[in-house]
Design goal:
The complex is a heterodimer. By secondary structure, chain A is an alpha/beta fold. Chain A has a domain at about 5-175 and about 370-395: 3-Layer(aba) Sandwich (Rossmann fold). Helix content of chain A is about 40%, strand content about 20%. In chain A, the strands form two sheets. In chain A, strands 15-13-12-11-7-10-9-8-16 form a nine-stranded mixed β-sheet, with helices on one face. In chain A, strands 3-2-1-4-5-6 form a six-stranded parallel β-sheet, with helices on both faces. Chain A starts with a helix and ends in an 8-residue tail after the last strand. Chain B is of the alpha+beta class. In chain B, a hairpin with a 3-residue loop joins strand 6 (about 150-155) and strand 7. Helices cover about 30% and strands about 25% of the residues of chain B. Chain B contains six helices and twelve strands. In chain B, strands 1-2-6-7-10-11-12 form a seven-stranded antiparallel β-sheet, covered by helices on one side. Chain B has a three-stranded antiparallel β-sheet with strand order 3-5-4. A two-stranded antiparallel sheet of chain B has the order 8-9. Chain B has helices spanning about 30-45, 50-60, 70-85, 130-145, 235-245, 250-260; strands spanning about 5-10, 15-20, 65, 105-110, 115, 150-155, 155-160, 170-175, 185-190, 195-200, 225-230, 265. In chain B, helix 1 (about 30-45) packs antiparallel against helix 4, helix 3 packs across helix 5 and helix 4 (about 130-145) runs antiparallel to helix 5 (about 235-245). Classes of the chains: A alpha/beta, B alpha+beta. The interface of A and B includes residues 324, 339 and 347 of A. Strand 14 (about 340-345) of chain A pairs parallel with strand 8 (about 170-175) of chain B, so a sheet runs across the interface.
């Protein structure tokens, strides 16, 4: 893609975000996106005095982040860090001039960088985050926030104490399709939202090949309980954020069941999870994730009394039954000037099979929402003021995912904690 | 140049609703008609809290009550008339739980909208609501300048405004619910409503469908019948087709003879008979 093409693509993307966030109530429903997109729309055409980032963790996700940061107008990667050398080598092609480190503590020098990007295994997030704040740096951290609810809160407390920005990666919060979906839901197009049915189903072991110079805990950290809550923190967090966001609340309690049901390969985390998050007024988020059937993939079915939104598919469906074929034929007849008897008088009742109408598009594309996250982060660092509302969403999503894990582990309903850190 | 056409499809009254408008009419005509139907649904449903469930609670408790919901009041007035027109055969108060209870046990004062029952009973507008809703939707469309439209509530209740877009009546063929390849009758409608009731066919298999009660003795109607009623009022058409379904022979004859080209009753128990056998049609 040429620079000119990219400029057009970037402009188009930001326009979509601005359009999606322009509706009534969106300034309070997605203030972070309004703020980030407004700043991005007025950004200088070329990078000048960018925010200097050090990326810690240059595995698959870290390298993807580096590529997105490169697209941003106000951030640049000046340092990269990974304790596993081959990851650093791979990352170099995307940040050839960046200084390289094997230990993040050696990188945390505020004279050389302004902020760190944390894309390491979950159990290391909190410690690295604390080190960065102690070094006087701002932090952008991948979701989920931390391995424990206590550490999630401590990250916020430490950020506050240090007077630094803490931003968590939740790309759906910047995605035009999600923003458009939220706008239309808030406008009442799908009626009263009472249930969200979310799933992330894959059909693979979720296990990476372990090179000869590494060990399984290092490479497949997602499968070890002390390092990760597995499906809950690595996948469900995104969708729980969407659930809280669309229901405009946090759960009151959660019940769930988890099992190692299919991949009995020594892993410690569940390969099947099924949970019900209860919200005020009897509303629910029903969540399932599994690793041996991909038929239903990744989706959040946002269900209201007048319709359904499926943001991953980018569709909105009205509660409209199938057409009466005889009346449809009558329409066509009239259009071509032909009058025929209309056969009618069928069943009032119709079988309740799944509706397969195509719905209406909410817009979909390969967007640069991760790039926009970083432009928003860059602006927040420059202004010394976090994007509004974002950290609360991220914190609540991480807590929800970890609370779900507790509900499954203890086989008991877990109520929403009352001792969370105030934001 | 073709005739402008608009369609609105949605779920209400426990079924699928279609509004087909041709030619003139203001932009908000469809919205007004949909709101009218949803308003009837909200007022008359007994499947979720509504003014009707509140009323039923009071009637079951033996209390009199003054109704303040205008749609429910209008419905009760229309039912009062339908009850008389159908020789008492259409009875939304007939209920197997309260054998012998019926509309006659109600005292309804139209001037004060006060209603009371002399014995515990509850109302179910199932055999009336769709036609009544179409009446109100037609009124809303006419108010919005619509002069040509066809409205369907689950295909068993139809209402038309004006003539067919290409002139003349709206032609409909009523299929035999017991034989998919056969037609019972063909009719033409102008500014009228049509209602079809049957004890046979897919519609009767709905899991939540209540049995058809004969108000004269509280028994369940089991005869294989299909009835068709056409009237200026959808509510009356609906009540009439229900009444014909439960009518004994003398009452059925009286109702059919009062409007021979507008009311039909088919005995479907003679499965081998030809559907175009006129002797079978209107046999009661």
């Amino acid at each position: 893609m040429t620079d000119k093409d990219f400029d057009l693509s970037r402009r188009s993307f930001i326009d979509r975000v601005l359009t999606a966030t322009a509706g009534a109530g969106m300034a309070t429903a997605a203030p972070w996106a309004v703020s980030a997109a407004s700043a991005a729309a007025g950004a200088e055409p070329v990078k000048s005095n960018p925010v200097r980032l050090g990326v810690i963790g240059t595995g698959d996700r870290g390298r993807a982040l580096i590529q997105n940061i490169a697209k941003s107008r106000n951030c640049t990667v000046v340092a990269i860090c990974d304790s596993y050398a081959p990851n650093l080598v791979k990352a170099q092609q995307w940040a050839p001039t960046a200084r390289r480190f094997a230990d993040h503590r050696a990188m945390l020098d505020p004279r050389g960088i302004d902020a760190v990007v944390i894309a390491t295994p979950l159990d290391t997030h909190a410690k690295i985050c604390f080190d960065a704040f102690d070094a006087g740096l701002h932090v952008w951290c991948e979701k989920a926030m931390a391995r424990t609810i206590a550490d999630c809160g401590a990250m916020i407390t430490r950020a506050k104490a240090a007077g630094k920005i803490l931003q968590i990666g939740h790309q759906r919060m910047f995605h035009p399709t999600y923003l458009n979906a939220l706008k239309r839901a808030r406008a009442g197009e799908i009626g009263t939202l009472t249930q969200i049915r979310a799933s992330w189903h894959r059909n693979n072991a979720w296990r990476r090949a372990v090179p000869a110079d590494a060990n399984d805990r290092q490479i497949n950290w997602r499968l070890y309980r002390d390092r990760s809550a597995g499906l809950m923190t690595e996948l469900a967090t995104h969708q729980l954020q969407v659930g809280n966001w669309f229901l405009d609340a946090v759960p009151t309690r959660v019940i769930g069941s988890g099992s190692i049901c299919f991949w009995k390969d020594g892993r410690e985390v569940y390969d099947h999870v099924a949970l019900i998050y209860e919200y005020s007024g009897g509303r629910k988020l029903i969540y399932t994730s599994l690793l041996n059937n991909a038929r239903y993939g990744c989706e959040e079915q946002i269900q209201g009394s007048k319709g359904t939104i499926e943001p991953e598919l980018g569709r909105i469906y009205q509660e409209v039954p199938a057409k009466v074929l005889a009346l449809q034929r009558m329409h066509k007849d009239v259009a071509r000037g032909h009058k025929r008897t209309v056969p009618i008088g069928g069943a009032t009742w119709f079988p309740e099979l799944p509706v397969t109408t195509p719905g209406e598009s909410l817009g979909w594309g390969e967007y640069d929402e991760t790039m926009l996250q970083f432009e928003g982060f860059g602006e927040a660092v420059r202004a010394g003021k976090a994007l509004p509302g974002l950290l609360r969403q991220a914190y609540q999503a991480s807590v929800a995912s970890l609370l779900g894990e507790q509900a499954m582990d203890r086989n008991q309903a877990m109520t929403w904690p009352t001792n969370l850190v105030a934001i | 140049m073709g005739i402008a056409a608009r369609v609105e499809r949605f779920v209400a009254m426990g079924t699928r609703i279609e509004l087909h408008v041709f030619g003139a009419g203001s932009e908000d005509a469809m919205v007004a008609a949909r709101r009218a139907i949803e308003g009837v649904d909200d007022a008359l449903t007994i499947h979720r809290p509504s003014p009707t469930t509140v009323l039923n609670d009071e009637l079951l408790a033996g209390h009199g009550v003054v109704i303040d919901d205008p749609v429910l009041i209008d419905a009760l007035v229309a039912i009062d008339e339908a009850h008389v027109l159908t020789l008492g055969l259409f009875d939304p108060a007939a209920d197997r739980r309260f054998a012998g209870a019926g509309w006659g046990d109600l005292v309804f004062d139209r001037s004060t909208a006060r209603i009371a029952a002399t014995r515990p009973l509850a109302l179910d507008f199932g055999g009336f609501g769709k036609g009544f809703a179409l009446d109100r939707a037609c009124a809303a469309l006419r108010d919005a300048g619509v002069v040509c439209a066809c409205l369907s509530a689950g295909e068993s209740s139809i209402a038309v405004i004006g003539e067919h877009p290409l002139g003349g009546g709206w032609p409909f063929a009523i299929p035999d619910p017991s034989r998919t390849d056969a037609v019972l009758v063909e009719v033409e409608l102008v500014d009228e409503a049509l209602s079809i009731s049957t004890t046979v066919g897919a519609g009767t298999q709905a899991p939540e469908r209540a049995a058809m009660i004969r108000p004269t003795d509280g028994g369940i109607v089991t005869a294989a019948r299909c009835t068709v009623a056409i009237d200026r009022s959808g509510g009356i058409a609906e009540a009439m087709s229900t009444a014909l379904l439960v009518a004994d022979a003398p009452r059925a004859r009286r109702l059919l003879d009062a409007a021979p080209a507008r009311r039909f009753l088919y005995d479907l128990s003679k499965a081998a008979a030809r559907t175009d056998d006129t002797a079978r049609m209107q046999a009661a």
